[in-house]
Design a protein that fits this description.
The protein has strands at residues 2-3, 7-9, 13-14, 19-29, 34-42, 51-52, 59-61, 65-71, 82-90, 97-102, 106-108. By secondary structure, it is mainly β. It has a single domain, classed as Jelly Rolls (Sandwich).
């Protein structure tokens, strides 16, 4: 649970592939409460909190339910060796809150599409 005005960083997660699909499950939130979830990245040898992957690619939460966002090698600065989430709340008063959980990330490789080798019927050769 986070209260209005709080910012929290998750632990670092090892990058496991080219792309990351994240899902947040918002269980409850006060009226007027908002939360933004961004992704930060860095290499193992980089000091500090890392850098935002892309300030325009983020989860913006204003209601309960599931939200999905993907980040990848072509999103902003791309994904380095480590990634982590930044949760920041705003828009409420001192008594507003949000209850949520981040589901385990799904990692997947980028697949290069090739137009040759697939017949017009769509089935592989």
């Amino acid at each position: 649970m986070l209260r209005n005005g709080q910012t929290v960083l998750s632990p670092w997660i090892d990058r496991r592939s080219d792309n990351l699909r994240s899902v947040i499950d918002v269980i409850a939130l006060s009226s007027a409460q908002e939360m933004v979830v961004g992704l930060y990245t860095k290499d193992l040898t980089d000091p500090g909190d890392g850098i935002a992957v892309d300030s325009n690619t983020r989860l913006e939460i204003t209601s309960s339910g599931l939200r999905l966002q993907e980040w990848g090698s072509t999103t902003g600065v791309g994904l380095k060796e480590l990634v982590r989430y930044r949760f920041a709340t705003a828009g409420g008063t001192d008594s507003t809150f949000i209850v949520f959980r981040m589901l385990p990330p799904v990692w997947f490789d980028t697949i290069q599409s090739r137009s040759s080798g697939i017949p017009s019927g769509g089935a592989p050769i």
